[in-house]
Write a structure and sequence with these properties.
With about 325 residues, the chain is α/β, with parallel strands linked by helices. The protein contains 12 helices and 12 strands. A 6-stranded parallel beta sheet has the order 3-2-1-4-5-6. Helix 5 packs antiparallel against helix 6. The chain binds guanosine-5'-monophosphate (5GP) and manganese (II) ion.
Length: about 325
Amino acid sequence: MYDTSILKEQLASPKQVTVLMHARPDADALGTSLALALFLREQGHAVRVIAPTEYPTFLSWLPGVDTVIVAAHCTQDALLAQMQDIDLLFCVDFSAISRLDEWAYLLKQPDAFKIIIDHHIEPENFADLLLWDSQAAASSEVLFQIFEALEQKEKITPAIATCLYAGLVTDTNSFKNPNTRAVTHRIAADLIEYGVDPFNVQRLIYDNKSLNRLHFFSFAVSQRLVVLPSLHVAYFVIQKEDYKRYELKSGDTEGLVDYALSLKDISLAAVLKEKDDTVYLSLRSVGDLPANLIAKKYFNGGGHKNAAGGVSHLSLVETVDRFEKILQEFCL
Ligand code: 5GP
Ligand code: MN
């Protein structure tokens, strides 16, 4: 049970609140942030939600998403003006400052009380209050349990439940990943009772692709997949031109890595994506193979044992080369 006494105190009177998620937000970061914002607005607080970079287009149906301010679309002055006079700053689904990319300066709010809501390992100590559990399948699970500890579960509206459910479904890969615990299912069941339509949420997340996106997946599987059977590794290499060719929007490569992992006898799957001057890596593993260690040691990243990510500032070709060498250490 979380100790929410300090949070209760902080929320006792109406506050100016900013909810900040990590860059390239996924459904857990976005859903948990929106759920928190909807909940706090109901209690009379003034809430802004900031995403450093664009959120996935396929999540644009989430309740309240139209209120999200995308920092990459704003000038620094405009952003800092938005952050003036805030009392509370929530950091949602991240506890490493590097996950804000170049927007780390948004944390420099000496007068704001900072609260982390997260489930990533090794949190950095930059907040006044850490509501965190690395055993939790998703940040949405943590937030649900905070509502529980605050004895305010009854304030969960269908819109709030839907945002939380979206985070739970995606971070557990539809309850298939081993981070799914009995309590995860109990929370999912509660959320259904609070008004989520689980079938509709799953459809909106997974069966809502543009034809372009489906064509891209087909192209990637046939042209961009490398399989290394002796290492039990399969990975995609997505070039800058591929984004253009298939008119890919933010988040459109999400889910691709699972096709590599769906192959028989594969223990590590990856997507290496070239965007501007950076290569982004998405890693997934099975069993004890530590994807987060690979990301942390070699790609300035991190995550969870079976789902992690990082970046490389080498060229795409050099990154692929380096990645293959690194596999010798982890996958032989
Ligand atoms: P995805 O492959 O879906 O982008 O990311 C999978 C998981 O890896 C995320 O939930 C997050 O925990 C972690 N992750 C992704 N990118 C980064 C990164 O750049 N830095 C860190 N520390 N973790 C990351
Ligand atoms: Mn998460």
